[in-house]
Amino acid sequence: PALALLRTAATPESLEVSGTRLEFLGELITRQAVKGKETAVLLRGIFKGSPCSQQNGVLRRLQVYKHCIQLVESGDLQLDIGSEIIGLLMLEARQLPGAAMAELATLFVDVIKGGSLSNGKSLELFSTVLTALATSKESLVYGKGELSGEEFKKQLINTLCSSRDIPLSSEELQFVVEKVLRMFSKLDLQEIPPLVYQLLLLSAKGSKKTVLEGIITFFNQLDKKQKEEQRIPESVDLEAATVPLDQLRHVEGTIILHIISVINLDQDLGRELIKLLKAEQQRDPGKTLCPFSVALVLSVAIKHRFEEQVFDFLKMSIVRSCKDLQFLQGSKFLQDLFPQQYDVASIILEVVENSAFGWDHVTQGLVDLGFTLMESYEPKKILGKAAETSYGLSKMPAHQACRLGANILLETFKVHEPIRSAVLEQVLNRVITKATSPINHFIDLLSNIVVSAPLVLQNSSSKVTEAFDNLSFLPLDMVQGLLKAVQPLLKVSMSVRDSLILVLRKAIFSRQLDARKAAVAGFLLLLKNFKVLGSLTFSQCSQAIGASQVQADIHGCYNSAANEAFCLEILGSLRRCLSQQADVRLMLYEGFYDVLRRNSQLSNSIMETLLSQIKRYYEPEPDLLPPLKLEGCIVAQGDQIFLQEPLAHLLSCIQHCLAWYKSTMQLHHEAEEEEDDDYVGFQQDLDEMLESITRRMIKSELEDFELDKSADFSLSSGVGVKNNIYAILVMGVCEVLIEYNFNIGNFSKNKFEDVLGLFKCYSKLSEILKEKAGKNKSSLANKTARSFFSMSFVSTLLTALFRDSAQSHEESLAVLRSSSEFMRYAVGVALQKVQQLEETGQTDGPDGQNPEKMFQTLCKITRVLLWRYTSIPTAVEESGKKKGKSISLVCLDGLLKIFNTVQQLYRPKIPQFLRALDIANDDAEEEEDINVTEKAAFQIRQFQRSLVNQLSSAGDDFNSKEALSLVTIISTLSKLLDVMPGNCHFLSFLAEDAPCCKGLLTLLFSLHFLYKSPVGLLRELAQDIHAHLGDIDQDMEVENQSHFAIVNIKTAAPTVCLLVLAQAEKVLEEVDWLIKKLKNHLVLEIPEDSSQASSQIQSLEKAIILQLGTLLTAYHELVQTALPAGSCVDTLLRSLSKTYTILTSLIKHYLQVCRSGLGTISGRLEKLVKLSGSHLTPQCYAFITYVQNIHSESLSFAGEKKKKKEDETAAIATVMAKVLRETKPIPNLIFAIEQYEKFLIHLSKKSKVNLMQYMKLSTSRDFRINASTLESALQEKNTEDAENEPDNDQVRTLRRARARAHGGHSLQDPAEAGLSLGVC
């Protein structure tokens, strides 16, 4: 019947479009479908009779589609019939024209919106319609316009997703969200932003965390894939290649804007975002803290409601990341477990880089974060810049965070031009407002900002001028830093330069000393950087900030010719400073040399100024002694005496400037074949004056200066202060003249004899000052004054004394080498200079602030000192009759200082430094690769041989200080090694000296931590300590297994014991950190990486249990050792408490594992519990009894003393207080043990494994009566009762005896200990 009907209905005439006919077709299809008879045949016939080339056929097909969709969704059909109908409709769908498909797709959208879908079977057809629609080439009407098929499809999806009125349960909503998130990877990147926006709107109903986590995870994976492709471009398959980088960044920026706009509507979404990131940061920061999420959260920070939360979270994440990285860097054991180190700092800097792609909404958050990090760090007030540049201090997490903040601001400043003025103003504001605290980090940032964009200062010149008004109130180093930073602006802005000069002129006449010094610093900076026409160009000028900041030569009104009048005017202002305080003059003398070198056309004016100044204090009569008028160098104000003229600094300035003038300007004049009369005049005058002063200083006696041993040098009287000033001035003049005569002497014997004569004068005064300082016990007078030698001269002098083997120099150098005091003094000055460099980052004298010159000089000095120490050992050297260190020992101290300084200040140049020590000539190729480990190992072996010789020497020949210095040097050099040195055999030598023993063991531990875990070493050392100190049970004989000869009866306690416990504390910290990581891994659920996560968890568990197990065996030895009362016992008790606390933490972790059903306890844990129950807990209680017994004996001894001498109550009280203090950790230890056992019981119940079978319940704290002890105590009491009535002290003694019978734990009230006691 159906076929007959089909034949009738299939003619075009019979299928005319009318309401009746269409209704008839619908009823026919319904009847056939419900009966399940030949439905597909009927539909094929209808489609055959409805060709798409005719309008009626299209309308008829469309009506059939609509009816079939309603029929399938009605639920009246059998499942196979519905599938057959949908399958046929899907096949015929591509035949429909674009407009029909658009209408059909719109129908589906309306049905979905209306919620009339019952089983969703027809949605299979919807996906086919959408796919066909996307490929349609027709223009489709949408609203008032036209769209292509692809655009129409996007609009439909957008409309569908924007419908948030569809009623969904929470489970359905979660399913929809997860389904959409999974589809991200299959969509084109440009289609994702509208879909994300609709998802965010949908999240108002729930699943906020899922939506945010899915979005962050998706873009995190895209970023990682993009990075991998950039790292290995040749490995990328063309088909698998991701989208272009700029496209990805723009899409990410759009999505961040969408999220921010939705957060404006729904504040809960913002709170959920911060909550999500905080939770994941605790668990696995690498999962959600990525460049995309950091950019997102920084954009959210613009909202004041979230600003504080966001910055607190980011600051905490950064500091925690820095701490974790620092923790990992100090332990090879942890590095092996965590090879991939997560670094928040690099991620934030990547956000700055990404923000260049139009992420303007992130820039303000980046700026605020940068300033937040910088303000959270306050540098220590240390002289100079050592506090900022020291590599040791930079390891502090707070300092690292500050440096990151500076980098964020600098990079953001470079990338985003619109915010430059705002950043610069904020930096200048902080420089001005934070003047009372160190602001070097802001000064450095300002300098770097100006270097990156010098002309940006022009837009903020008013702020700079305002900062100048506050110069008088800023510390001197801040003034210098600020002026150097803004110096480029002075060359291009007349108004700024004029305002600065006005401020500096006012400051010169200020009553405040700091203001005057600031003025001198400012004027000197101007003189260095505003060159006069004709000035020579020197390579040293590259160190001037101006030369590196402004590459272009600026002409116009600020050209070189116009600078001459400007500079001469400044010099006129500076001449007035020569009549001010000593500190002001001192700054001027120290700055003239740099001005002269960089602005050579000012040399005549400067040299004339210095000549006129020295003439005030120079005695012109050639035979008059002394040659200098010292009385003019001091000034009296009431009863107090002050230095007015730093004469030695003036002479030093003259000497250096004259030497430069001779070597440079003279050659310049000769090259131009001209001669300057002024040049000849002042050079001759100065040379004659220095020669005359030298000659007369050698002839002068101390009495000529009114200085001798009978003079008063006490600082409490005016005469004593005056004599101290005179002595320091004379010593400084001697040093300046020594350098002058050595330099001009050209290895003349007569000149070297003059040098030695000057040194004798210096040493006499030095001895007198030391002697008087010792008598007066004045720490101020005992401080050695800084030497006036320049660093380059120290290098030249040491090389001549120790390494110069030229035949022509031998006779003259023999004069200096004949004086061991002079050679020791020369090495001592080198040590002082290196120490100043280490502390402040610079030295006094020429080139002292030039890092490159200082490094080169340091290499030369090191080479000389190293040769001197290795060539002439201390044991061979005659120290002479006078007391003091030998030259070799001073050389060793210098080497130690130099190695530390190089690692702090010149870490990038360590390869060049090691090469300089190894290569005798400077002509070696600089291009060769330097193996730092090989070079460092070579130096270590040299010092190691010296140390072995020291440890092998007899008792009187052993030098403890030298051995300790050698150990410290080896420790310092060992930080440069990449592989474990194979020879640490020197530990097998006997070392009874405690400091040397401590140094050796510290070195050993540091090496072990860098290359492997030291737990095995701790166990061996603990066995040695036990063997030498004996057992707490006196009847027990300990087997003597000596692993290290360095552990002996003299060093075992407290030296070795405390070191072992300190290292055990570090191991416990590592284990505690690992347990926290283990708990974080447990919380994470990563189905796709479950096997990888499981293996990582197992490796962590194995590492933790092995560490704790080996450490327990070390404690097993220590708690059985008869340690003396004091620090060893106290530290051990505290360490045991921490051990049990960490064991409890591990048990809690396994308890959580069992509760969550993620696993069971391992066999390793059972072994660890068994070990703690058999080898630690019983011994701990025995050790507690031992400790309280030795303290009881101390109290008994104090009681006996009291009976003898009633007036010694104070001594007894001291003993009582000491005992109470040292027994305080005992209750904590017992509580920790009980907590451990408590959670073991819980774990046993959960895991169905009886872990308590390995634990013996303690009875030492119960009041179990020891019969034998009680009987002896009672007999003692009866004997005392028979003799006389007991006094109160005897009653207390009896009570203590009974307490010992009860177990020895009643020195403290049980309630105080927080413990429950039971009576058996």
Strand arrangement across the biggest beta sheet:
1-2
- Helical fraction equals 55-70%
Distance between the termini: 101 Å
Major sheet description: 2 strands, antiparallel
Instruction: State Rg.
Output: 44 Å
Number of beta strands: 4
Count of alpha and pi helical runs: 56
Extract low-pLDDT stretches: 1-15, 235-240, 382-393, 538-558, 921-925, 981-988, 1085-1089, 1260-1264, 1284-1320
Structural class: mainly alpha
The residue-averaged pLDDT reads 78
- Shape descriptor reads flat
Strand content: under 5%
Pfam families: FANCI_HD1 (PF14679), FANCI_HD2 (PF14680), FANCI_S1 (PF14675), FANCI_S1-cap (PF14674), FANCI_S2 (PF14676), FANCI_S3 (PF14677), FANCI_S4 (PF14678)
GO biological process, one term: DNA repair
GO molecular function, one term: DNA polymerase binding
Protein name: FA complementation group I
Task: Report on the architecture of this protein.
The protein is an all-alpha fold and 1320 residues long. The chain contains 56 helices and four strands. Strands 1-2 form a two-stranded antiparallel ribbon. Strands 3-4 form a two-stranded antiparallel sheet. A hairpin with a 2-residue loop joins β1 and β2. The chain starts with a helix and ends in a 19-residue tail after the last helix. The relative contact order is 0.03.
